[in-house]
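Intended use. Records like the one below are meant for learning the mapping from a protein sequence to its folded structure. Do not use them to infer anything beyond what is encoded.
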Amino acid sequence: MNKTFADQVVHFNKNLEYTGDLPEGFQVLNPYLDHPETMEVMQKFYQKYYNDSNKRKFIIGINPSRHGAGVTGVPFTDTKRLESVCGITMKSAHTHEISSVFMYDMIEAYGGAEEFYKEFYINSPFPLAIVRKAKTGWLNANYYDDKKLFEDVKDFMIESLQKHISLNIDTSEVFILGKKNADFISKLNKEAKLFDRMTVLEHPRYIQQYKLKEKEMYIDKYILALKNKNPLIISRDFITIV
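Structure written out for the chain above:
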């Protein structure tokens, strides 16, 4: 019996582990080990929206935040959106993550969660949460925040992207969230030749924090790009900036 898209994602997440080096002051959080309920709600999500063998387009974030996928196991999905939009309740945690707010407003404008997830798969090149020690405690960190951190996790990220692609991903075009993220994924792409074209969109957190008054414009921009209806495309190497 052929495995569904959901079966393959769940298998990937169940076996997700980072055992490589990290610079001093950094830690990797694995929600599937740290939160017992995460595995349960993650499986419910993928079985609800990905219980098929359809080919999907790939949207790539940076790495999960502690309050989004770092708890729910679902990219750009905090517990509020998981329950209110997806109908899946997480009893052991209650989180609010601003990137999730933008993504689900965009998903609603696209046509709703069922329509959106039928066509798109979202994940990250480094699919586990990274935190950095600060005076005030542990804070979210991006894989590119430290040169040595990137070098330490680079091979793991390439391997993770290759595994994502094997799920049945369309590699003719990939959508990258965040321009700095795109610069680093461009380096991985040159080395591993993963995608034919990269289309870059502003990161949801940036929009929610700094461009909130223009949010509707950015939602329109996302939808035009995702539906390949953007009339103005500027090419740079193999990156498309919309």
